[in-house]
């Protein structure tokens, strides 16, 4: 299981590094920010989708392991825990990358920037570790 936790940590870090690389590409001038700037309709829809995806991702991502159906499945099987952890990383990682990209494509739209910051903070609540895995699978309380 330790190997799978390392894989989860690598994916966790890859999401944050990819968001940082998007920032570097736009901040250094390799790509010009504001490709969709000035288009009010695109601004509205991208901002709306960003807000919905971010709020959905944070809500479900943080509570995912406590849902009754998920909790019963992950209690018995470590592989199932791994799959649900990947799902949680995707629920938070995808909006993070989309919000970061939208921030620059819309010409530094503050809404998308704030959403990306919220997701970065939220990411640190789901750091994959052995203790977290044991806690979420209720193994710590079963053995004591």
Explained architecture:
The protein has about 140 residues and is mostly helical. It has one domain (about 1-144). The chain contains 7 helices and no strands. The protein has helices at about 1-25, 40-65, 70-75, 80-105, 110-125, 130-135, 140-144. It is elongated, with a radius of gyration of 18 Å.
Radius of gyration, rounded? 18 Å
Number of helices, where a helix is a run of at least 4 consecutive DSSP H or I residues: 7
* Stretches with pLDDT under 50, minimum 5 residues: none
Q: Return the domain count.
A: 1
Q: Please tally the β strands and state the result.
A: 0
Helix percentage range: over 70%
- Note the overall shape: elongated
Mean pLDDT: 89
Distance between the termini: 21 Å
List keywords for this structure.
144 residues; mainly alpha; 78% helix
What's the gist of this structure?
The chain has seven helices and no strands.
Please describe the topology of this protein.
Layout: H1 2-27, H2 40-63, H3 68-76, H4 78-105, H5 110-123, H6 130-136, H7 139-143
């Amino acid at each position: 299981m330790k190997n799978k936790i390392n894989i989860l940590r690598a994916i966790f870090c890859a999401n944050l590094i990819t968001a940082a690389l998007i920032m570097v590409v736009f901040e250094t001038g390799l790509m010009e920010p504001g490709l969709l700037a000035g288009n009010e309709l695109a601004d509205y829809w991208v901002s709306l989708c960003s807000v919905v995806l971010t709020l959905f991702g944070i809500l479900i991502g943080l509570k995912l392991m406590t849902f009754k159906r998920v909790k019963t499945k992950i209690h018995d099987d470590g592989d199932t825990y791994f799959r649900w952890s990947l799902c949680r990383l995707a629920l938070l990682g995808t909006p993070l990358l989309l919000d970061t990209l939208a921030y620059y494509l819309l010409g530094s739209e503050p809404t998308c920037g704030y959403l990306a910051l919220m997701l970065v903070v939220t990411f640190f609540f789901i750091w994959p570790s052995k203790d977290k895995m044991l806690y979420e699978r209720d193994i710590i309380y079963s053995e004591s």
